[in-house]
Amino acid sequence: MKILVVDDSKAMRMIVKRTLKKAGLEGYDVVEASDGVEALSVVKADKPDLILCDWNMPNMSGLELLRVLRNSDNDIPFGFVTSESTPEMRQIAEHAGASFFISKPFTAATFADRIGSVI
Amino acid sequence: MTGVIDRLQDIKESVLEDFFEDEFSPVENETWISRDAITALIRFSEAWYGAAAATCTPTLARGIAATMFECAPDELSEDELADALGEVINMIGGHVKLMLPRGTRMSVPTIHPTANVAPAVPGGRIVWCNAFDCAGERLAITFFSCGEPE
Questions:
Q1: Inter-chain CB pairs, A–B, below 8 Å
Q2: How many domains does chain A have?
Q3: Full-model pTM
């Protein structure tokens, strides 16, 4: 099973991977993308079971990526992992089809709770 | 601004220690005197104008980045260092942004090889500044407002 981590920060992708391990989710393969455009290629090639995605990214944002996926009838579980978490953003994310919204800084317990409920 | 200051006061517990699992001890009444510093800066705009900066010694910057990248401090590239520090200020900025007026936008981080980023925040007034000690190295967090004084 695969989890796709999408973030333009390599440091944050590493932190997310580490937190997945701490959350007991180490049985999953983790694939990465640095923006929404690259993520679409990875989704097509690797067919991940879950996407963990940053909100703000160059080329294609996380929200744009989610909308492209949902508009093409791809219902892959999708969660945002982002440093900004206003109520408006959460509402927009939910309306666009996100399964959950995790704010940075996050803990392994939060990952286990949110991700465990969708996969 | 009171809500923002409250939010800044708990940065040590809510951002720094939760995430980095290091001990950050507040340092009272200390002005940044080291010439050797690196600062990550984010700007707020649209509904509210200001900025937040995280300044630290290069040693601490490399230590934080090495933790993130799981490598030795001297193995880091300058891009990786900037990436890691950018994420630190992203988290601090995101933490504070919840208390800023609705519609406030947060910029991507910029990295400056200095402690004095005031010139990069035209019209900015420091409304909060606290320093922390982490294993003998210093981290200072500064919050600027570019609006009317309150």
A1: 53
A2: 1
A3: 0.84
